[in-house]
Amino acid sequence: MRLLAAICAFCAVANMASAEVAIRIAYLRVETSRPPTLSNLDPIPDDLGLAGARSGLKENATTGRFLGHLYELEEVIVSEGEDTLEAARTALASTSFILLDAPASTQKAIADLAEAEDAILFNTSSGNLSLRDSDCRVNLLHTIPSDVMRTDALVQFFVKKRWSDFVMISGTHSADKLYAAAMKRSLTKFGLELRAEKIWAFDADMRRNAAQEVPVFTQEFGDYDALIVADEVRDFGRYILYNTWEARPVAGSEGLTAVTWAPVVEQWGAAQLQTRFREEQERPMEPQDYAAWAAMRSIGEAVTRTNSSNPQTLRTYLLSDTFELAGFKGRPLTYRTWNGQLRQPIPIVHPRAMVAQAPLEGFLHQRNEMDSLGLDKPESQCKAFEE
After folding, report:
1. Distance between CA 346 and CA 349 in Å, rounded?
2. Over the stretch 341-369, which tens digit does the pLDDT of each residue have?
3. What is the DSSP letter of 43?
4. Which DSSP helix (H) or strand (E) runs through 214?
């Protein structure tokens, strides 16, 4: 385990004792091996997610400076093979606020620690639906959308376009399978169905063979309205576009995508957030950065409004009707009281522009239109938030 230096300088730490409200927040990343992919055109930043937390901390500090609120970020990186739970216990000994970048199973194990009972944990990396459903934890909030929120957004677009005939190519990695399952769930939810599915199991180099292999692979699909690609690890999807037997739209993990955040989101003041982040971090803001930023800003907003650092006070406010987060998505963001998921619009984009933002017009809901995306209260098996 490597404990990186805290962002604030020593003098700021020394002043914490005299500040009216002092908030120490930990960002805990559990490093995991990533599957090999056919292309390295999309390198994963070393500070993915962490950069978003740093950016959110800076915004908190700007407001806090005028209110006597002092924020500190502790960066905890757990390498493969190291004791993740021990690292979490160490972090919990000094703070009740942790942003988690870890697999779903690890997040559950951390949330179940006795030391975490009164803490507020934020899931900033896992879209696994189970964390919002049967495996939910009352001390775990989610600023990253679930996979189903993203697939619901895309299927709303399908409905608006009156597309009804779909085929899908799915990868073999666990993230691909979860996304494919989420897509099937969303299609069913909105009265559509998947006509055919094929599994991508090629081990050939598609950089040279895509033009020969992909048309043959997709020929038996026949005609369709859209081809859905479930390739969350960014392995083969890029080679599907423009190589299919039928010239039809590609959507899902490639082509037309539904995402947490993207550089092409520029409305509602988002361009200013994009610019600030790029200047500070020297790269574009990725979806996981946005989720970490939203978690950090949620803490900052709650502290500002309550003038408190007490975890229970802040949790009560975060889950109240009073809390709102300005998330640069055109609508205030709030937390679902039945499973801790941050409600948020989902941009539907291609690499050069935003096409739409869900929930789309016409998809109504009795409480909040954003609850048309993802697991709604009547569907939820989460019982922890009822206690």
Report:
1. 9
2. 999 999 999 999 999 999 999 998 888 99
3. P
4. helix 206-219
